[in-house]
Amino acid sequence: MLGIGKSIFRRLLFGHMFTMLLGLCVVGFLLSLLTKGYIFDSQKEELLRKAKRVNLAVQAVAVPDDRVKELLLFFDQTFDARIWLFDRDGKIAATSSKDEVNVGKSVDPAVVRKVLNGEEALLNEPRFEGVKESMLSVVVPWGKDNEVYGGIVLHASVAGMNETITLMRETILWVTLVGVLLSAATASYLSWSISRPLRRIDKLALRIGHGDYGERIEIYSNDEIGELAATINQMADKLQRTDEDKRKQEQIRQDFLANVSHELRTPLTAMQGFLEALQDDLIDDAAKPKYYDIIYKETLHMNRLVDDIADLIKLENDEIALSRSPVDVRQLFAHVAAMFGPEAAERSTTIEMQTEEGLPDAYADRDRFEQIMKNLVKNAVKFTENGKILLSARAESELLVIRVADTGIGISPDDQEMIWERFFKVDRGRSKKSSGTGLGLAIVRELVELHGGTITVRSEVGQGTVFEFRLPAAQNAIHEGGRQHVKAI
Questions:
Q1: d(CA 128, CA 29)
Q2: Which among 303, 302, 301, 279 has a CA at the least distance from the CA of 291?
């Protein structure tokens, strides 16, 4: 019994078989009892009916004669039942047997009293002299109207009924055996269909527990086991994605630390060398302002790097909350163009603006919107000489489409997929004069997505680059002729 409880297959198999066997046995036993009772009741009613027919034939005769004996013999052969006639004293007066060995013998006094009272009697045991075998006997009054001469007894052997009941019981037994075999086969299949996928789920759970998330369970049933398998597969998918994300984040963290170390090491090394030279008076007084200027610029570079890293970390950790309000795009363009105009002029580059009439305001955080534009225009100025930078905006449904296009040296197709990565610097002939932190475009993308927008880039080497991003428009305000009008909704 202990071995059975360790396996779901065995528990289901034996439990199903035991239930089926118990049910069949109970049904067979009840059916046997009910059938036996039905057969005896039917036989009793039939014997009573035959006994009454015999009484109708002999009720006019109070003392049996030869004609009565012939009638009894006739009914014996017709009904296949032995017939006795007894008088009021209980003495057998005539029988349907030719030898008449029972004539003169007595009937049980209890039976006689019932008959004399006009009652019918049923006996299924040998209570008559000369009856040894098991018989079913019925007794009815013999007489006419209220006059009773005695009683009429009909005996029917129960051997035939017993044979019928025995045959029925054998049939029930065979049906039970066949039912048990079918039940065993059905229970085996059902148990196998349940335990097999559970074993597969158990193996997969063990593999997941050891950190292997690559395997999946292929179970296509629509029952609870199929739902469990689907849940296990979903869990494995989530764990696999979580593990991959964890590894990716770890790799990003390592790359981040390596890049930060590299970006800080270069200016710190330069500053250390220059300061040591200045400290040891290895540089004459005329050249000292130049080295002080280099140290100052390197300090500014490190300061920008730290600020960019802090902004990027806050963006990725959702620590920056936007303060949205309607922002005049034309005004913002003019501010950014004025800020980078002198630097662009040094590179013989012009900054132009183009906006359509009735352009709605952008619904954005003004400071973060300005930061996006500064980073994009700053990149455009760095890589454009003797060219043009165009700042444009147009309305598209409920969005504003904003472009920063330049006629600079462009970006190669291979680099276009990588420009959004942190610390990635495109090799576009970048000089130290135009060096940056490599975080500007990563911050731009995070800020655009924080506003619920998208940003794309199109570029061709030697032809220029176009950055295009979309921000929500503030539909309740438009600008015409430099004046703001509130638009009714």
A1: 32
A2: 279
CA 368 to chain centre: 44
- Is a pLDDT exceeding 50 seen at residue 145? yes
141-154: average pLDDT: 83
Q: Are 51 and 154 in contact (CB under 8 A)?
A: yes
Residue 340 sits at the vertex; the CA angle it makes with 336 and 345, to the nearest 5 degrees, is: 140
Q: Tell me if 312 sits within 8 A of 439, measured CB to CB.
A: yes
The mean per-residue pLDDT over the stretch 192-202 comes to 75
